[in-house]
Amino acid sequence: MERKIHVVPVVLFLWVCTCVTASVTYDHKSLIINGKRRILISGSIHYPRSTPQMWPDLIQKAKDGGLDVIQTYVFWNGHEPSPGNYYFQDRYDLVRFVKLVQQAGLYVHLRIGPYVCAEWNFGGFPIWLKYVPGIEFRTDNGPFKAAMQKFTQKIVSLMKSEGLFQSQGGPIIMSQIENEYGPVEWEIGAPGRSYTRWAASMAVALDTGVPWVMCKQQDAPDPVIDTCNAFYCEGFTPNKNYKPKMWTENWTGWYTAFGGATPIRPAEDIAFSVARFIQNRGSFVNYYMYHGGTNFGRTAAGRFIATSYDYDAPLDEYGLPNEPKWTHLRDLHKAIKQCEPSLVAVDPTLTLIANNIEAHVYKTTTSCAAFLANYNTGSSAKVRFGNGVYDVPAWSISILPDCKTEVFNTAKVSALRFERKMTPVIGRFGWLSFNEVPESSGPNDRLTANSLLEQVYVTKDSSDYLWYMTDVNISPNEGFLRNGQSPVLTAMSAGHVLHVFINGQLSGTSYGGLDNPKLTFSDSVKLRAGNNKVSLLSVAVGLPNVGTHFEKWNAGVLGPVTLNGLNEGTRDLSKQKWSYKVGLKGESLSLHTESGSSSVDWVQGSLLAVKQPLTWYKTTFSAPAGNEPLALDMSTMGKGEIWINGQSIGRHWPGYKAGGNCGACNYAGTYTEKKCLTNCGQPSQRWYHVPRAWLRPGGNSLVVFEEWGGNPAGISLVKRT
Ligand code: GAL
Fold this sequence. Notes:
50% of the residues are buried. The protein folds into 3 domains: 34-343, TIM Barrel; 422-434 and 587-720, Jelly Rolls (Sandwich), CATH 2.60.120; 437-583, Sandwich (Jelly Rolls). It starts with a helix and ends with a strand. The longest helix has 21 residues, at 2-22. α5 (142-161) links the parallel β6 (107-113) and β7 (172-177). The protein has 13 helices and 39 strands. The protein is globular, with a radius of gyration of 28 Å. Residues 1-21 have low confidence and may be disordered. By secondary structure, the protein is α+β, with helices and mostly antiparallel strands. 19% of the residues lie in helices and 29% in strands. The strands form 9 sheets. It has an 8-stranded parallel barrel, surrounded by 4 helices. The structure holds beta-D-galactopyranose (GAL). Residues 116-119, 179-180, 229, 249, 255 line the site of beta-D-galactopyranose.
């Protein structure tokens, strides 16, 4: 008996060792790739946020910037638009993307989710998932777990069939299951805890041969590694002392919302955050985002996420280096790489040199790397270390890969600051216009109810637009018809935008914002004796992507809808008969396509619609010579959507001006997404990326739907340099 007990551990040990050398494991220091501990620099590039034609260049620039790993989410709703119908083409060609990263000699961190957050429509969930009977998202719920497991398996087996895991010789060194589930679990308690355990074991059972992480998940069950997401992560410790300290999201800036200012994060501060993490035993840092790109089509999440997902990332929306950030971080990475042999070999020692001044030293018998840190926000310091004296600016870290020579300091930026330039290449287009007549209730309405219906329930997100239409009878005896005091229509909506049409005329518009998507329209309306057509065009700006049970959040006119100032006082319209129509006429006619656009009569010249709601515009143009990235300057337009050769480049909303305070920005001191804002008082987004790959040499069609009212004469095509 005793003998047997001794034999088993030896056999197991040998088995573990063979695995270690064939693939990816970890210890408390770092990931171990084919037997070697590694300090890894990673960057997020989300494949559907650029075109496949841009991918090789983005990946190459990431490599030139000193990255080892490309991190991406997997976007379920892009891959499974209806149950069991999978799509892996064009911008969703995940295999091609992963193989391009491999060809460039970089690794991949695949965040399967399949919940991804990411400012992506519905956090990546397909809309049909919401209507699976009995489903409840992201908790211990049978239908949800079945769907999640099926999609996760699908992605893992696709990657396996292409040999893409490192254990198969591929580039994927790590995967992720779920995303920042910890806070949700904390809120919902027991079912959340068992869901976490289930998710981890489901993932691990897929046997990818590479580690799984769960980010912001303190209780990530072994062998899953819990990781940090934040602007700073030096204080983070994984839940077991045999797991490496990894940072899956170091936010390089922040997203822009329509109505919000544009956040930027100083290069000095992000470099500081990375050096601070590495000097404190960190071994994996991912920039979220390294290239943010564009929310094409209707992929941007509610609420109010802008079409640009530039993120102030090291590569800008168009794929050009964002300077000085890109170069400064490249130089940081070089310095860290010089320290790598020491960093992976030993644990650091920490010496307090003075108040807020520290030395972190990784010393082996053959090598030594030091980090000299000054946490003071207001004063630089002369730091005596070894035989030298080093000048360490406020809020900065100097890196000494040989414990003597400073090769990099996070606050000494030598790269040049580049101004973004948008140069017009087509100053004016020749436009045609077509005006949609607002919908109104009629005898043949197919969908009616004696109540106000929730918007997403009706549209199933097939369109941003839902018409709520009703009739209002006004007696000739109404006092307001004589005293000139128009009644006030009040409509409460769960979001996001509401255009009110009375008898075919736009009467007013209201909209919510990022902090509160709800809105109330309340204004006097012109009514006449007899029947009046009240048509409310409710517009959703994407489905929410975050928040506990975000799938249950409503949109649209939920009421009450009232009319005040009648003889009877207030009339509640909420429970009377309402008709519904999903989408715009132009959408059902596919006016954004060449074939569809011939189905209506367009006008031009003096008849061209200007500053009118519900207007479609179209024009054609030739692709400008050269290969600089292109964009449309939409500053004279209100809100709507833009298509190039039938493909949507996203929602435009320059009519929504950026609120907030754009003060001076000092790099020193703790950064938050509210700290360094730009663009206040300007349109939150003025320029809209036109991918070169979507153009042909001549005869390109450009279609704009304007829901609010704008002047297309001001639209120009610009190139970015
Ligand atoms: C994180 C989330 C990301 C992204 C980010 C903000 O919490 O994991 O997916 O939404 O916030 O850009």
